[in-house]
Amino acid sequence: METPKQITEPGRLTNSPPVTSLETDALRERVAELDRLASIGQLTAGILHEIKNPLNFIINYARLSVDLVEEVESILPQFNDHPEVDELNAVLIILKGNIVRIRENGTRAERIMQGMLAQTRADSSVFELTDLNTLIEEFTKLAYQGVRAGDNAFVVSLDFDLDPTVGQIMIAPYEFNRVILNLVINACYAVDERRKRESDAYKPIISLFTQRYDDHLEIKIRDNGEGIPDGVKQKLFTPFFTTKPVGVGTGLGLALSRNIVHELHGGTLSVESEANNFTEFTISLPLEAKQESK
């Protein structure tokens, strides 16, 4: 009868390679980083919930204010003989425009907040008709502002070339926005690393494209950063693989993004890159009726 193999460390057999101190330290750092991110996620969810009520208050009262302005406009013709009626009309037009902008931006903030809150729920994989171009633009800017919040010196040009025929498509928006966030944050990191190495003549650019075809649509996120060596490119989508320093990345973003695109949406996520030149991620999503049934 074969003698059972003894275990000298949790989860490691005696005939397995011994755990090195570097591996142990790296594992501890990774666990600590994931625990820190989990705590930040819980804190963020709490903050977003606290913001939700006053934000709804702003949106609702902006809507009511527009109604009041329109009511005033409806009775103004009764005072056409008043010498200041034209001036009052001009003020009302400006006031109404300001209130409409408040409501539009409040609604935009509400969409972003709902998307972020959905990340904390396990049931966020709900497919619904979504304005893809709007989602891409909003979460690209959100990713950029998030990076800039940690480094005021970071500046990048965002170039949007979004096909207006893309329109609304059936996706899981609260999952898909993670993909955009991950890819844009990675692009920001790549251009920032190149900026630190090169002179002021270098201009960081992140370009985003969408294009609708007969049976699929494509999203491209391209940066003119430091690029990815071929050896690294083959490992990009491996969970926990990262070239970033400890505390900067967990190595889960691209693996999660690929799973969302491949498994959840039935699409593909690929990458092309040249060292010291560019990196371009391409998302291809099928335009099939089966998406509408999810």
Provide an overview of this structure.
The chain has 294 residues and is of the alpha+beta class. The chain has two domains: 20-121; 126-294, Heat Shock Protein 90 (2-Layer Sandwich). 52% of the residues lie in helices and 17% in strands. The protein is built from seven helices and nine strands. It has helices at 21-75, 85-118, 132-150, 173-197, 230-233, 253-264, 289-292; strands at 7-9, 12-13, 128-131, 157-162, 168-171, 205-212, 216-223, 268-274, 278-286. The strands form three sheets. The chain has a five-stranded mixed β-sheet. Strands 1-2 form a two-stranded antiparallel ribbon. β8 and β9 form a beta hairpin. α1 runs antiparallel to α2 and α3 crosses α4 (173-197). The protein is elongated, with a radius of gyration of 25 Å. 20% of the residues are buried.
Q: At the third CATH level, what is the topology name of the largest domain?
A: Heat Shock Protein 90
Number of individual domains: 2
Sequence stretches where pLDDT stays below 50 over 5 or more residues: 1-14, 289-294
Tell me the β content.
15-25%
Spatial strand sequence of the major β-sheet? 4-6-7-9-8
CATH class of the largest domain: Alpha Beta
Write the H/E string, N to C. EEHHEHEEHEEHHEEH
For the record, what is the CATH homologous superfamily label of the largest domain? Histidine kinase-like ATPase, C-terminal domain
Pfam family, one: HATPase_c
Enzyme class: transferase
Protein name: histidine kinase
Keywords: Kinase, Phosphoprotein, Transferase
